[in-house]
Amino acid sequence: MKIKVDNPIVEMDGDEMARVIWGYIKKYFIYPYLDIKIIYFDLGLKNRDYTNDKITIDAAKAIIKYNVGVKCATITPDKKRMEEFHLKKMWKSPNGTIRNIINGTIFREPIIINKIPKFVKNWKNPICIARHAYADQYDSVDFSIENKGKLYIHFIPDDLSKYNEKKFTIHHFKSPGIGMGMYNTEKSIYNFALSCFNYSIYKKYSLFLSTKNTILKYYDGKYVDIFKDLYKSKFESKFKKLNIKYEHYLIDDMVSKVIKSNGGFIWACKNYDGDVQSDCIAQGFGSLGMMTSILLTSDGKTFKSEAAHGTITRHYRKYKKGIITSTNPIALLFSWTQALKHRAFLDKNKNLKFFSETVEKSCKEFVERGNMTKDLFFLTEKNNELKYLDTKSFIKKLKIFLQKKLGY
Ligand code: NAP
Ligand code: MG
Questions:
Q1: Kind and range of the H or E element at 41?
Q2: How far is the CA of 307 from the centre of ligand 2 (A)?
Q3: Which of 309, 367, 373 for mutating ligand 1's site (highest number of atoms within 8 Å of CB)?
Q4: Is the pTM of this model over 0.85?
Q5: Domains defined along the chain, listed by start
Q6: In angstroms, what is the span from residue 115 Cα to ligand 2's centroid?
Q7: How do residues 356-404 score in pLDDT, each as one tens digit?
Q8: Cβ(336)–Cβ(14) under 8 Å?
Q9: Mean of the pLDDT values across residues 102-115?
């Protein structure tokens, strides 16, 4: 009695330990329960090299076509990996390639389990970071200045009209220093805002935007204005109906508010703030093996989920030597359930929604009852009766636990 899923989902396979666990997840939690068409792309590094990375581009296009993708962790090659895999080229990060094609916002959210202690004790509910993953420092020009002199930023309009030309004095250097020019676009900020509001509604979470608009009156002021206008024109009544709110805070106020809070909201961050704050939040909640990441387009339709961690190379090296590892599969499992929940949302498939939620609830309850991998075990109070499980035992026992919950 498998659950019928009307539309396909796009699966992207990956590398190393994450790939090994990925195989177990499909074998124990997906194939036995779902009648689903999976559009498969092997993004393992060998295959990316073999296809000259065309496979990554094809996968991204398929996600746009089918609206739902689930991705395993993949190696982003560096010099060492070039040698290890005898690569033709140092291929770009698949996540970057996919993000550039799909053009969405990244939301990162921890999986909360009461039994697992958090560094910040009052964080009872997830804090979801929405990162504007476009431009700012990541596409800026920075440089050093060796001599005395004046630094300008000069805007020359394409039509060369003198009227629209602008020249800003940045600094008059009397001694060596450094400088930078950076930008963003209204269109990208607007789409970021739209993604955030749509996701707030989907999650039924309040939304907070942080900026430093007291200092960057035009730059950060633009974020504040765009968010406010969009909220007033399209979202205010929807938010009120759901009893959630939208507010802007100065980033310093926001940081202290977050630390004191119980969680349960979305924090919209500019690109650099999101990079830094998401690692801070992940650590505050406990383990990398419990952090998920999704990419969502501004219309709230196209969705890709994955675990926030990498391919867990250190564990894979042991696995290859035949040593049994205790790697946490939870974020990888939740990347599947989240993708399935989005498929259920788009297709209005109640059975699929129920199944995905049951897998998530069962997994949390399973850990609450003291079944955990090494990373979680070492976070909890030391207890002599408690032992940690290796990866495969964790998965097999969880499958039996789930079977009892589902009744089949
Ligand atoms: P990583 O795979 O996230 O692992 C770093 C360390 O974090 C592990 O050695 C392990 O610590 C711990 N850890 C991470 N996930 C865990 C889990 N599920 N269960 C238990 N422990 C876990 O990062 P990395 O070693 O820096 O990167 C390895 C490869 O992944 C790189 O080639 C990188 O390019 C790639 N990467 C891919 C993505 C992606 O596809 N989204 C993201 C990041 C990195 P201990 O060894 O102390 O147990
Ligand atoms: Mg970072």
A1: strand 38-42
A2: 14
A3: 309
A4: yes
A5: 1-105+301-400 (3.40.718.10), 118-140+184-285 (3.40.718.10), 142-181 (no CATH)
A6: 27
A7: 999 999 999 999 999 999 999 988 876 666 789 999 999 999 999 999 9
A8: no
A9: 90
